[in-house]
């Protein structure tokens, strides 16, 4: 429990995950995300990236091993303390997961409202962030009337509105053009400079290449290929290097 | 406090969109209507049984077959018993009017031997056995009967009806609770994706349960108010029907102000029960998640 552990925001120790009685989808994960770091997670489809993200945003418990997030052992923690930790984590889902009957504004405002903020403290930041992601004029639109890229930007705005300590994003630039991808990356980097730890699961090599100093992790077959986090761009293939 | 919780705070408005035409308020309205009518009937029957019991408490009847000749002796004997507050012979005309139901015009015949009937009221502490002893000493073939015993089958039937009504009200309450459980589960399934999203970004069980309990409480309040209005209309119409059996038995209105107050509480109680049942249902469903 030295200073090393204090500076880690996420620590996995021999973590495994299986759904029901099926085979393990994540095996013996030992990983450590430094507080304030920027990490990319790559790997082929079916490697377990989404399952790993589910552990990180506390939608799943590991079936074995230890999982410490924000310095707390959460693998066996009681469920009633989970919401407080979830509020410290921003999540960009691959399928956006916007509330269909709420406007873009209300979707982005949701984390602040759940946290009990007064409406006066909600309106300004939400408008500002919607403007930042280029959706100022679409604030009243509901998700079914938004394009995929617009929905993705709303999802990102919702994830970052509460200045989370940890931001977990699953393919956050999958539905936006290159200009918007660069803009969103800039947003992530700005948040990172303000202290938010970022973990982005992506196949987008250009995104990885554009981020200086980012760590890279690669999952294959449910295992971390480089659990030390020492890999750097470009990602190495298994057996190389 | 209960009613303030029916309106969501600004931040929670619209999270569960209103679906127009959903059946829950209507089902609750029908159930509340039936519950209120049954409860009103139960209260009326209970009041009738009570008033009937009070009206015959301490009242006895002296019956002497073909006894017009010896009635004065029985009256005098009854009057000597300590604690007797009133002794009143039933007029012959009343006896003949009663017999007319069975005998028709023959009841008016002067040849018909009529029994003598004498009503006796005993005050507190009076001894019915002493009354019987004194009367039979004066008129050996006289019979002394307690009104309460004679009306026993009626009062027992009224009590049974009262318990039946209570049982039906409880059954309706259970059915209403079951309706709320089903409605809550339905709403929970309909809004599952919204719940998962909110849960994923840090909503507490309490916050999620509040959305549903508010929704169901509102449905129960609206449905309960509609059912209560319909029941009030029906009860008001029933009261306008002259010569109802219970009015005849009790000689007056069978629902007291306290009864109306209790009936008015039922829709509010229904709203409270719906709120608590919805809350428990949602919290139980959420416990299955992380």
Tell me, what's the shape of chain B? elongated
Secondary-structure class of chain A: alpha/beta
Number of individual domains of chain A: 2
Tell me how many strands of chain B there are. Answer: 4
Query: With helices defined by DSSP (H or I, 4 residues minimum), what is the helix count of chain A?
Result: 8
The appropriate CATH architecture of the largest domain in chain A is 3-Layer(aba) Sandwich
Main beta-sheet annotation of chain A: 6 strands, mixed
List the total number of helices of chain B.
10
Low-confidence stretches of chain A: 1-6, 232-241
**Main beta-sheet strand count, sense and barrel state of chain B:** 4 strands, antiparallel
Q: Span from first to last CA of chain B?
A: 31 Å
Query: Uncertain runs of chain B with pLDDT below 50, 5 residues or more?
Result: none
How is the secondary structure organized here?
The complex is a heterodimer of chains A (241) and B (290).
Chain A: H1 3-6, E1 8-18, E2 24-34, E3 38-42, H2 49-56, E4 64-69, E5 72-73, H3 82-86, E6 89-92, H4 104-114, H5 119-132, H6 148-160, E7 166-170, H7 178-193, E8 197-201, H8 205-209, E9 215-220, E10 223-224
Parallel strand pairs in A: 3-8, 3-9, 6-7, 7-8
Antiparallel strand pairs in A: 1-2, 1-4, 4-5, 9-10
Helix pairs in contact in A: 4-5, 4-6
Chain B: H1 24-56, E1 59-64, H2 71-80, E2 84-89, H3 92-103, E3 116-122, H4 128-138, E4 143-146, H5 147-150, H6 152-190, H7 192-200, H8 205-240, H9 245-250, H10 257-287
Antiparallel strand pairs in B: 1-3, 1-4, 2-3
Helix pairs in contact in B: 1-6, 1-8, 1-10, 2-4, 6-8, 6-10, 8-10
